[in-house]
Design brief:
CATH class: Mainly Beta
Number of helices: 3
Number of domains: 1
CATH topology: Pnp Oxidase, Chain A
Pfam families: Pyridox_ox_2 (PF12900)
Protein name: Pyridoxamine 5'-phosphate oxidase family protein
Largest sheet: 6 strands, antiparallel, barrel
CATH superfamily: Electron Transport, Fmn-binding Protein, Chain A
Strand content: over 45%
Shape: elongated
Radius of gyration: 17 Å
Order of helices and strands: EHEEEHEEHE
Number of strands: 7
Length: 140
């Protein structure tokens, strides 16, 4: 028997998911780095139904998401959440789709992404969501 004092879990629609992540901030990119699944935190900005993020040209994320095919994309996922452990509430949003490195022209037109870490972050990527899902846990 489930207690009415338990938090309620609800599935979020695409519009609500995109609204929750719209302010940008910090999220996690999930990808295959050649040795298996990897997850890396990044600063991001939202542009429509895509997220943009920057990384180091010499970094593992850049090397893993590069493709030799012009206009090609690499399958990846992007996750953002907000959790309040005191109230046992929060939400989580997952975008899955294709990521590609932005050309200089695309980068010049892109929304601004300000990475927190120092150093060069000259590899800009766009992950375009083909699938968006999310859940919210609300206090009773």
């Amino acid at each position: 028997m489930e207690s009415s004092m338990q938090p309620a879990l609800e599935e979020l629609d695409r519009a609500e998911c995109l609204r929750l992540i719209a302010p940008g901030g910090v999220g996690r990119v999930a990808f295959d780095d050649g040795e298996g699944p990897a997850v890396v935190p990044v600063n991001y900005a939202v542009d429509g139904e895509s997220v943009l993020f920057r990384t180091s040209v010499s970094g593992r994320l850049n090397r893993s998401l590069l493709t030799a095919v012009t206009g090609g994309q690499v399958r990846a996922a992007f996750e953002v959440d907000s959790i309040d452990t005191a109230t046992r509430s929060g939400w989580s949003v997952l975008l899955r789709g294709g990521a590609h490195r932005l050309s200089d022209e695309e980068r010049d037109k892109a929304v601004r992404v300000d990475p927190w870490p120092g150093g060069d972050r000259d590899a800009w990527f766009r992950l375009t969501a083909s699938d968006v899902s999310g859940r919210r846990l609300s206090p009773p």
